[in-house]
Amino acid sequence: MRHLHTSHSHRGGAMVGAFVLLLPFLFPSLFTPLSHASPSILSEWNAPKPRHLRLLKSALQRQTSNEQQLWMPLANQGWKTCSESDIPPTLPEKSQGYIQVFLDGGLNQQRMGICDAVAVAKILNASLFIPQLEVNPVWQDSSMFMDIFDVDHFINVLKDDISIVKELPDDFYWSTREYYATAIRANRVKTAPVHASANWYIENVSPILKSYGIAAIAPFSHRLAFDNMPKDIQHLRCKVNFQALVFVPHIRALGDALISRLKYLPTERESSTNYLNVVTDSRSKQGNGKFVVLHLRFDKDMAAHSACDFGGGKAEKLALAKYRQVIWQGRVLNSQFTDEELRSQGRCPLTPEEIGLLLAALGFDNSTRLYLASHKVYGGEARISTLRSLFPLMEDKKSLASSEERAHIKGKASLLAALDYYVGMHSDIFISASPGNMHNAMVGHRTYLNLKTIRPNMALLGQLFLNKSLTWPEFQEAVVEGHKNRQGQLRLRKPKKSIYTYPVPDCMCSA
Ligand SMILES: *[C@@H]1O[C@H](CO)[C@@H](O)[C@H](O)[C@H]1NC(C)=O
Ligand SMILES: *[C@@H]1O[C@H](CO)[C@@H](O)[C@H](O)[C@H]1NC(C)=O
Ligand SMILES: *[C@@H]1O[C@H](CO)[C@@H](O)[C@H](O)[C@H]1NC(C)=O
Predict the structure, then answer these.
(1) Does residue 124 have its Cβ closer than 6 Å to ligand 1?
(2) pTM of this prediction?
(3) How far apart (Å, rounded) are the C-alpha atoms in residues 312 and 50?
(4) Are 125 and 95 in contact (CB under 8 A)?
(5) Crossing angle for the helix pair 249-264 and 413-425, to the nearest 10 degrees
(6) Cβ atoms within 10 Å of 392's Cβ, excluding its own
(7) Ranges of each domain in the chain
(8) If you classify domain 98-246 with CATH, what class do you get?
(9) Section 43-50 average pLDDT
(10) Ligand 1, from 90, 98, 125, 200: best to mutate by most atoms within 8 Å of Cβ?
(11) Where is the signal peptide (predicted)?
(12) pLDDT for 384-407, tens place per residue?
C-alpha cells in the first residue's frame, strides 16, 4: 500500500508550522485524524449495510476450535535485546554545539524523528535540545515533547550516550521557531536530503556548529538513512525508540487501568453495576485475561483516497468523489482503477465488517475481548455495528474509562494515539486493518519484544471478498492458510527498509 505514503501532499499547503509551510509534506503520518473530519452529514450514507451477508451469517454462527493456539505466545525466534556490554556507550569529550530539530507529522512519525535526532547529534558529537513538535494541521494537537514523553527518563536512559538539554543556554535564547520562520537564517539546515548519510551531516552541519554553536534542522522527518550507518549509531536509534521513549506517567496509568479492565471485566455488562471500577483482583469473574487490539483506521480521508467502493451506495460514492475533488483536485492515482482491480491488488482498506470476518475466520469467537484503537470511523456506528455483532465484547477508550479519567487527553490527538499505542503494546495480539505509521511502529516495537502481531494479507482478502460464491468453510480455510506466516514470524530488514519497523538485525543481538 505504498500509494498511501505519497499521497497527501495537499496538506503541505495547509500546514500551520512555519517550516513545513515552505516544503512539501513528504511523509504524512497515517494516524487517524481526530478532529479533522467534518461533522457527519447524515445524508452521506444510506446506512452502509453489510456487504458480505452470506459470510457474515455463517460467521455469526461459527464454532471455533483453534482458539487456544491463537493465544499462544510466540516461541523464541533466536533474537534478544542487546546488552550494554555488546555495544558500550561513549560520550564525546567536548560537545561541538547544539542540534535543534522541529518535527512534523503525527505521533508515530515524530517518534522516528526523535530517534533520528539523537543519532544525528551523536554523529556530530553535539548536544541535543529536546525535539520540538510541530502542530499538525490534521491532528491539531499542540502537545509538546514533555506532555507526551517522560522527559527525565529520556535524558537519563541516554545520559551515557549523549547530552540532552531541556533548555538552551542563554546565548541561544534567539533560536526559536519564530526566528527561523521569519527569515532565512544561516544556521538553519533545510536542505537535508531524505535518508541523508552520516557523512552528509558531518560535511554540511559540522561547519555550521563550528560557526554558530547551534544548527536548527527542519524539515527533519526521514532525513537519516537506514543503510550504511555505523553499528553504534543504529544501536543508539533503537535504544531511543525501544527504551528511552516512554509515555508520561498519566498516560501509562490510564493505559494500565484500561488494560486491567480489558483483562478482567465481567463478560456481562449488566452484571456489574459499577463496572468502570472493576479492580484487578476480580479476575476470578470472567475472561481468560487476554485481549486483541485492533487498530482500525477507516476515516473519510482514507476511504476517499483509496477510491474503493465500501458499499454505502450512490450517496457515499458521490461524497467520496467530492472529497477527492476538493482535497486532491481529483488527482488520486487509485481512481484510475475499478473497485474490482483495486480489491484484487489489496489496495482497499478493510472495512470494520471485513476485519471482523478476518478475525472470525482466524478462529476468534464471540467471547474475544477486542479493544478498538480508532478515532473516527467513516459511516459511524452503522459500520461498527457489524463488527460488534461478531465481537460483542468490543471496547474502546470511551467504553472503558470515565470522562473524568479521560479529561487530560480529551481532544488531544497525540495523547489519544499514545494511549492506544500503550494499550496496543500490552495486548496479546495486535492487528491493524490498514498499513500506515501506527501499524509500522507497532510491528517494529512488538517484534523487538517478540509479541504476536497479525498482518492481514490484503491482496488475498481482496480476492476472497470479491468471490461471492465462496462458502464460509472455503473462506475460512483460505484465510487460515494465507495467514499462517503472518502472525509475528520474524522478518529480517531488507535494504532501505526502516529499522523501526524491522528491528532485526540492526537493533537486536542473536540469542
Ligand atoms: C566525534 O568524536 C570522536 C571521538 O572523540 C571523533 O573520532 C570524531 O571524529 C568526532 N566527530 C565529529 C563529527 O566531530
Ligand atoms: C456467543 O455465541 C453463543 C452461541 O454461538 C451464544 O450462546 C452466546 O450467548 C454468545 N455470547 C455472546 C457474549 O454474545
Ligand atoms: C470462487 O471460489 C470458488 C470456490 O473456491 C471457486 O471455485 C471459483 O473459481 C472462485 N471464483 C473466482 C472468480 O475466483
Answers:
(1) yes
(2) 0.87
(3) 9
(4) yes
(5) 50
(6) 12
(7) 8-76+250-434+453-486, 98-246
(8) alpha beta
(9) 69
(10) 125
(11) 1-37
(12) 999 999 999 999 999 999 999 999
